[in-house]
Amino acid sequence: MDESLKIRRLRDGDVSGVLCVINEAARAYKKVLPPHVYREPQMTLQEFLEEARRIRFYLVEEKGNIIGVMGYEYVKDVALIRHAYIKPEYQRRGIGSRLLHYLEVLIESENRTSRLIIGTYTNAYWAVNFYRKHGYDPLLNHDATLRNYYGIPDVQRENSIALEKRIR
Question: 97: which residues sit within 8 A by CB, 6+ positions away?
Fold first, then answer.
């Protein structure tokens, strides 16, 4: 990763920049989701603020500009990796890999779980491939996993997959 890139924890003044990253990157879903599932914006300000109460968000910035975001939260006996987005023009440069690894190391150092779970849209093949490349395996019981750990609408759950990685 370029030396001009910095990973840090989300601060209050970062919210609008993070929302721009999320909503810009999420437009890729339009080509793979049924119209009744896809929505724009992917996340509203109110939704993000609600998520930020639970999720520890980290971002990647280049020269003060936010170019990526990812978070995690503990739910029951697992850590969920949440809202992983890199601005489209910065994708395929290893930035998402670096941010994911950063979060995995943090979670491992906190010693609260050995299970990491990621949920993503089933048809978002680029995301599924990214997570598989990083050692996450699709769960056979993904529907039960999504019901158990995620508070998401049925329409989102029905179009999603869960992947897991063991650490330690």
Answer: 130, 134
